[in-house]
Design a protein that fits this description.
It contains nine helices and six strands. With 211 residues, it is of the alpha/beta class. The protein has a four-stranded mixed β-sheet with strand order 3-4-6-5, covered by helices on one side. A two-stranded parallel sheet has the order 1-2. Strand 1, helix 1 and strand 2 form a beta-alpha-beta unit. Bound molecules: S-adenosylmethionine. This is Methyltransferase type 12 domain-containing protein.
Amino acid sequence: LGAKNIVSFDVDKFSVQCTKYLKEKADNPSNWEVLEGSILNKKFITKLGEFDIVYSWGVLHHTGRMWDAIRNAVSLVKPKGLLFIAIYNKTSSSKYWLRIKQLYNLLPNVGKRVVVFFYFLLFNIIFQLIRMKNPFKIINEYKKNRGMDPLIDIKDWFGGLPYEYATFDEVINFFKINKFNLNLTKYKKYNLSSIEMNNFGNNEYVFEKEN
Ligand SMILES: C[S@@+](CC[C@H](N)C(=O)[O-])C[C@H]1O[C@@H](n2cnc3c(N)ncnc32)[C@H](O)[C@@H]1O
């Protein structure tokens, strides 16, 4: 995309390795730095400087201190720069999901496999058959679009702690106070209240920093 410099970082060494692998696949550009570090580490963040574009999809709500992480991500954006973030939506089910995830993480490996298997069977196979859809077609399409096997995705969802969330309004208000304007949003809007209740996925935001 013609960026002068790119800096990627993650706190987890396997995620760093994965990014390094992707960098190699992209011909190892010398202007792309891949670092191990935490968005919660203010000293590390300050050293990075400021950027025209900061992108963090589905990360800040997994840090254990979401609002501090958001604040630190904000500090990386230059005036007139853009910040892309995805944050779990807060719904009436969010607190129950937190509890389910905590319980899931207490299970031995075999218990975790049983939960993932039955969830997969119920939602990816039985539910699709009830809807008169071909589950294998849906699974293949999902893999293609999401770039992730549904079984891994389910495991990732159940196991994904820390887990925090915020409503659309909470996020917007935070950014207004910090002089960021919503540039574009793919906030998921559903008309049916029963679907809204289940809308515990990510809200995606693009904010522009004022001058
Ligand atoms: C759900 S994954 C991100 C998904 C990914 N961005 C994508 O588009 O598929 C969450 C990531 O946040 C990272 N993470 C968690 N806490 C962090 C922290 N304090 N600083 C930096 N990265 C962190 C995890 O290591 C993990 O790689």
